[in-house]
Amino acid sequence: MESKSGIFELITPDLGDTDKIELVHWNSKLGDSVQPGQEVLELVTDKACFPMESPVHGRLTQIIKEKGSIVRKGDVLGILELLITE
């Protein structure tokens, strides 16, 4: 078995036609491990709340956008360090 490490960027998804997307809550802290499907943060628009799930198994190593930040589609919100086992 070979292990490889890498990073995964958590990026603001396309949430439709909206001018304001706010990052309202980080459900994970720096250093926390996350599993695929685990809710990592919450984004809110003027129309709805959007939980953002991790698509990978990793560890939150960097928070780029803090709670309360106004973000746009494509903004990097945080960095996950991942471990791939082959």
Automatic annotation (TrEMBL):
- From what superkingdom does this record's organism come? Bacteria
* Gene3D superfamilies xref list: 2.40.50.100
Pinpoint the Lipoyl-binding domain residues: 10-79
UniProt protein name? Lipoyl-binding domain-containing protein
